[in-house]
Specification:
Length: about 110
């Protein structure tokens, strides 16, 4: 897949996701952070965007980098749990994680051609 096609694909995925639909099953949300994400349209959208970017990027990188990305994602989830139901904390955390994923994508794109 060419990188130029990635942006419209991510955008299209985000458009078909229903409002208040997190990247995980909200019916199984038990922790305060999960319930806060499910209760907020903004946090749900950020969660979906982060998940789509992560999944897309992990499909584009070499196996060794996938392990590092998985570690970073688990660290993000631990930080999210520490935010609890604090929506300001959660929003900042998601925006920061999305910025990291965007920069990783840009760095990968600069190394092209693919």
């Amino acid at each position: 897949m060419q990188f130029a096609l990635l942006v419209p694909v991510v955008g299209a995925v985000l458009l078909v996701i229903p409002a208040n639909a997190a990247s995980f099953d909200c019916g199984r949300a038990r922790s305060a952070d999960e319930r806060a994400v499910c209760a907020s349209g903004i946090l749900s959208e950020l969660d979906v965007e982060m998940a789509v970017r992560f999944d897309t990027l992990t499909g584009l990188v070499a196996m060794g980098m996938r392990g590092d990305m998985g570690d970073a994602q688990r660290s993000f989830l631990a930080s999210r749990r520490r935010c609890g139901s604090d929506t300001v904390c959660l929003t900042a955390l998601y925006r920061g994680r999305i910025a990291v994923l965007k920069s990783q994508y840009e760095a990968l794109k600069q190394r092209g051609p693919f």
